[in-house]
Amino acid sequence: MQTASHKPTYTLARARVGERLRVVTICPDCPECLRLRELGFQDRVEVRKVADGAAIICSIMGMRVAIGRDLGEHVRVEKIAA
Amino acid sequence: MASPVSTSAAPSSSREVTRYVAIAGNPNCGKSTIFNALTGLRQKVGNYPGVTVEKKTGRFFGSHGEAMELLDLPGSYSLQVRSPDEAVARDVLLGRQADTPRPDAIICVVDASNLERNLYLVAQMLELNIPIVVALNMVDVAEKNGVVIDIMALREKLGVPVIAMVATKGVGLIELRQAVSRSPLPPPTIWTQMPIVLEREVMGLARQLPVAPDIARAEALLLLTLHEAALDEVTHHDRAIIEATKAAQQRLGTAGIDPISAPVDARYDWIGQVCAAAHHTGDSHFAASVSDKVDGWLTHRVWGWVAFLGMMALMFFCIFTVAQVPMDWIKDGSDWLGKWVTDHLPESDLRGLLTDGVIAGVGGVVVFLPQILILYFFLGILEDTGYMARAAFIMDRLMSKAGLHGKSFIPMLSSFACAIPGIMATRTIENRKDRLVTILVAPLMSCSARLPVYSLMIAVLIPGHSAMQKAGIMLCMYLLGIFVAFGMAWVFKRKLLKGETPMLLLEMPPYRMPSWKGVALRMWERSGLFMRRAGTVILALSVLLWALATYPKPSDPKATPSEALAQSFAGRMGHAIEPAIKPLGYDWKIGIGLIGSFAAREVFVGTMSIVYSVESKDKEDIAPLRDTMTNEKRNDGSPMFTPLVCIGLMVFYVLAMQCISTVAVVRRETNSWRWPLFQIFYMTGLAWAGAFIVYQGGKLLGFH
Description:
The complex is a heterodimer of chains A (82) and B (704). In chain A, 15% of the residues lie in helices and 41% in strands. Chain A has one domain (9-79): Ferrous iron transport protein A (FeoA) (SH3 type barrels, Roll), CATH 2.30.30.90. Chain A is globular and about 30 Å long. Chain A has 82 residues and is mainly beta. Chain A starts with 8 loop residues before the first strand and ends with a strand. Chain A has a six-stranded antiparallel β-sheet. Chain A has helices at residues 31-38, 69-72; strands spanning 9-11, 20-26, 46-52, 55-60, 63-68, 75-79. Chain A is built from two helices and six strands; from the N terminus they run ββαβββαβ. With 704 residues, chain B is α/β, with parallel strands linked by helices. Helix content of chain B is 59%, strand content 7%. In chain B, α5 (151-158) packs antiparallel against α11. β5 of chain A pairs antiparallel with β9 of chain B.
């Protein structure tokens, strides 16, 4: 998937730890994704992956959220230049 | 063990309540701290989401002495709820709870260090048409993080009073009290404007709703943002309203508006405007912080486990070393008291009741108080520092294999202290079946009431060994509980409560220094509870067990104490269950212990004290229970408490239910007798099978 800025996008689950990212899209269908949106995972919002394992920890708006890898697959992100 | 889970009673006051005020906000933003500061109560606080799972009430007084009722609501990220605890908050705020009046005002607690996310709930609260005071808590943490908040600008943008606070230090409390006391307190005048097409549908639906006009818009918005499956589960509106909602959603879809995400987007657009005017932050929160580095270790797939096991091992090591001295004091005190009673009372049933029943039974359990306090000290630190959520994170891999997600591990970790708050904490779990599975397995986690049983059996098993070895065995028992809980969750999710594994979504609280005062307070409260329980339930059971072990007295006055015990009521009960427990290597005296501890597992220790005191030939010699048990022989002269019997007994107590208070809470939380009865049945079966495998399997392998 490509955005208007032509930067490559990938899912949050596949992003590397420490990467500074920007949310591009979130799946609109599942209830968990609605909660993600309510927690601030809005389009264009910056997010950073802190830890990776069976689940992911990411930092967004100054808070840390643990999300399952499966849920991380529902969030597409692009890398922001460091 | 019992737990202070009931709704806190308001301090008595003859003054009439002039205002009902609800405290609401995101999880872990300091609501309970503010509640405690205003009411003077001691509601539990902690650094992890889901500490408060039901509403609590207390009374406080405004700046002119007017009495107000304060409701501490469970934390909630949104009024579009996902779990039973969030539903409590929503229902109170919308006036749906029959036993609670709709609040006259809301103190909306906001974490200043995380303003944008917290403002989402504020945005929804502003739509409720209830007067609001925003308590901007933790401004000190925000400042430390480089966040600058313009309070005046925030007040202007929100259109409601905003009070800067540091609740843990009492900063802003007077101003908050004044703001809430203000009369009249006007309702909000500013709220998020939805896209015109959406607003039109919202108002159209609101007109059809049979609710008070002031909350009709908020109710309509909540309905419109429900997924189809969730709409079909709505029970508080009739079918026509549901169909009207679906029709409105369809029209919005045709107009290119997603009714579910559009309100969220609109609120965040508004939050963006508020923050642009009042919230200034550098780029620092995107740089890797110390917390991130700590998280890198504590949530690492290898080092995370090392840290978890290391912390548990340290806790048990301290339980066996630090606690020993005060335990000796209590033991000496109990022995002195027993000897004093023996010296000052003539031989009689009363003396037997006091020495063999009350002092042996209650003293035998109270001696473990220092160990229980150390357990609570460590658990308090884990809760306060924010480690609980990290433990849940590293457990997610295992939990997901069992069909649950890591969030279920937080109630299970709470069950290390006591299964009752653990079971209450399952209210944070969104999925009904997952919540039920967690309730069913939570009592398998070793609670503090098991500690005396483990300690006694470890002392009998390896009396002369080091504290490190004893701590190792204790750790194994705790790990056994965790792994069997995972295994049973796996079985239940596949056979009994089938369902999809939910996706994990859990806020990780920031690391904080533990509040030593809070930890000490919790230790004090828990020791008070333990002593109250020792003075009531355990005392009553000890007296009853002494009577059962003493009467009827043998007709032959020359009967030995052992023969007298054998033909007593307790002896007969022990003999009655002996065929069922013989394959586990137990005799009828252990059978008395098992029966005696059915209602409360720690009573096993007291029961053993009573059984062996009643049986003791020499009343002047008060040998430690450990030594008496070590010297206990079977009929053939072989030792009774062999390593296999000791380990088997510990395994039995890891897996057995043996707690009537937990049964009562499971009954209340599941609203049925079916699940607690099933739980007693499966856990007792599991305990028997576990002890059988240890004893018979061990013998087959050549152990004794």
